[in-house]
Amino acid sequence: MTAATAGADKKPMSKSKAEILDAAAEVFMKLGADTASIDDVARHLGATKGRIYHHFPSKGVLLAEVCLRAADFVHEVVGPAVDASATPEANLRRMIALHIPEILRTLPYHKVIIQSYVGMNQKSTTALERELFDRIRVERRQYEDIFRNILKAGIEDGSFREQNLSIALQSVLLLINAPVFWYKPRKNEPTNFVADLTDQLADMAVSALR
Amino acid sequence: MTAATAGADKKPMSKSKAEILDAAAEVFMKLGADTASIDDVARHLGATKGRIYHHFPSKGVLLAEVCLRAADFVHEVVGPAVDASATPEANLRRMIALHIPEILRTLPYHKVIIQSYVGMNQKSTTALERELFDRIRVERRQYEDIFRNILKAGIEDGSFREQNLSIALQSVLLLINAPVFWYKPRKNEPTNFVADLTDQLADMAVSALR
């Protein structure tokens, strides 16, 4: 499976399921995934708990599906953008230019990922939850591999400096995910804020590697 | 209060209190701060709950003190290293060269910080807990300001490129804290691993700013 076709085996998501995931991401972000309950999500959605349980058998599954969708969002946007004929630097810039607006567009999902970062597996008890968290790891790994390949190509062709690939990869990924930690949408945000932020982080990431 | 004297107003910590904080950091890291109990910390320490409650009136206070100490560790090592006569780049390299080994030395504390990153305040209910979390915010801000001043000086003297200072600051801080997310001490770790990691991240951070 290539990056561009990751997810091609997935069924399209129903509007109802997507709405529940949006609400869950919002509620988990605000209350913390540990504290928030299915009741809180239902209340936010103005729906019954039954509607949520129809799609998600437990809070653990709902949380896992939020994390999985977070990975899917960026993967589906960035994966197809890699151009085998472009330079590593051009590819990296293009990937970052798509990655950053996408994480800001789907910010609550990525905030939940951070919350769940440590000990994601400690609390998942059912087989279905474990299976979902395994899928999240695979999908994240696939997404990271798109970046790993570009960094590797850049080190090999000399456009990036000789360095430990894993450290470089983790550092670049954290750099381009940095806004998840601090970004808060503001009413009076300058219209070009996201574009400027994206440019600056692309510059920083490319410079950091050179 | 300058960076170098931050904490000068604090009483030295008793060995008993420091031992409890070390144990708490370890247990919170492993079990998750939400899941772990005072009982778990006592068991890890081979001590009674009473000994812990003698120093820390609640789990919330214990968690806050772990987070506060995490901030103190790096602040006390990095703060005094700033040399007003050195260039911004030389200062930044020196700060990073101290910061990274220190976060690896005190890794469990910093892993707990990540866990507690989102919604740190949502669960703190007592006045003492709120006061502690306010102090954490102040101390973290003071630590960030050391870096902010160096970045600002570098942009002003042209050694770093003209860019949004806040974005640059958050990005560099995340870059040099990246190992907290992925580093796991290994038995067969090459002896120069930490030194190489530190060099690479210092190179990346400085290059990212130029």
Automatic annotation (TrEMBL), chains A, B:
Presence of keyword Transcription: yes
Keyword Repressor applies: yes
DNA bind region: 37-56
Matching Pfam families: TetR_C_24, TetR_N
Superkingdom field: Bacteria
Start and end residues of each HTH tetR-type domain: 14-74
Keywords, alphabetical: DNA-binding, Repressor, Transcription, Transcription regulation
GO MF term set: DNA-binding transcription factor activity; transcription cis-regulatory region binding
Protein name from the UniProt record: TetR family transcriptional regulator
Biological classification of the source: Bacteria, Pseudomonadati, Pseudomonadota, Alphaproteobacteria, Rhodobacterales
